[in-house]
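Quick one:
INPUT:
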């Protein structure tokens, strides 16, 4: 069985995080992943403190195993959320959309393990100096907010740059991706898109069906002109956003207005005209809905066989 130092550090069975996806990663999905031996992560997104506290208390009814909360640092409620994770003694905090410098000292002093998602070597080093216990190196193949570097290029460079464990994210949807990440020096993986079709994922059925039907070229990135690129499935709203982004009439205000509430409309209402369906480039690998536990078991069984078999190529 694949067991790395990230398992010992966080008390999990499999070295896998479930991505903290906005309007997707609630207590139901996160609890199922934690029960299966991974680290389930609740998405803090733009929740206020009390909304997040409700989800934290729900996950404790589902599992007694380690779990995490993703704190989106650009959220207007970031200060509230940062305090709630301390009050609720959340085992692991995963951060995104910025540097956790404002909060990390308090979190670490209160015994929380902090794992920032990073898009570059420089930011990984900064997070290590701040007190992070690990980092997630996320490539641009992932869904949601993305950077410029690919997972294949970013992961080994971050591994070489820091002493703390590194997890790889972006473009990982089966055991081949897990094996590749470990060969690049990562101690684990973070997976988002594959869990969109977990049985315990509560997104709208329209969203699940779009992911299941997606092909390799069916994602699109919008928002590069604003410096906040986001990857999702091609849809009427993302096509309109891309048209506006590269038109002479572009204004940031109009562009941002078009995207307001689009992720919620996709995940909770299944609105195929006005919804933004966050999804990574591995959508073409996702072909069936399964319980989270089966996804994890199959992924790591395949990775283990591949890693064992790699020895045949060595002479």
């Amino acid at each position: 069985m694949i067991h790395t130092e990230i398992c010992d550090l966080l008390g999990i069975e499999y070295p896998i995080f479930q991505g903290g996806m906005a309007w997707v990663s609630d207590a139901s999905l996160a609890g199922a992943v934690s029960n299966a031996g991974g680290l389930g992560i609740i998405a803090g997104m733009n929740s206020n403190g009390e909304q997040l506290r409700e989800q934290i208390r729900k996950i404790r009814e589902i599992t007694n195993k380690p779990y995490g909360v993703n704190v989106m640092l650009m959220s207007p409620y970031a200060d509230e959320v940062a305090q709630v994770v301390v009050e609720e003694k959340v085992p692991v905090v995963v951060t995104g959309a910025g540097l956790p410098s404002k909060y990390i000292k308090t979190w670490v002093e209160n015994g929380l393990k902090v794992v920032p998602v990073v898009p570059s070597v420089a930011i990984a080093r900064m997070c290590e100096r701040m007190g992070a216990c690990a980092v997630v190196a996320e490539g641009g193949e992932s869904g949601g907010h993305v950077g410029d570097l690919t997972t294949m290029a970013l992961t080994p460079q971050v591994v070489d740059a820091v002493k703390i464990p590194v997890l790889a994210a972006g473009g990982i949807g089966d055991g081949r991706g897990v094996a590749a990440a470990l060969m690049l020096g990562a101690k684990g993986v973070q997976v988002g898109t594959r869990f969109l079709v977990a049985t315990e994922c509560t997104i709208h059925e329209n969203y699940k069906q779009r992911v299941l039907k997606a092909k390799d070229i069916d994602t699109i990135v919008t928002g590069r002109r604003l410096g906040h690129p986001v990857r999702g499935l091609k849809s009427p709203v993302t096509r309109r956003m891309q048209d506006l982004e590269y038109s002479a009439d572009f204004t940031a205000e109009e562009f941002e207005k078009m995207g307001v509430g689009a992720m919620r409309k996709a995940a909770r209402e299944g609105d195929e005209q006005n919804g933004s369906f966050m999804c990574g480039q591995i959508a073409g690998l996702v072909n069936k809905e399964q319980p989270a536990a089966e996804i994890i078991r199959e992924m790591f069984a395949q990775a283990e066989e591949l890693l064992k078999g790699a020895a045949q190529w060595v002479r």
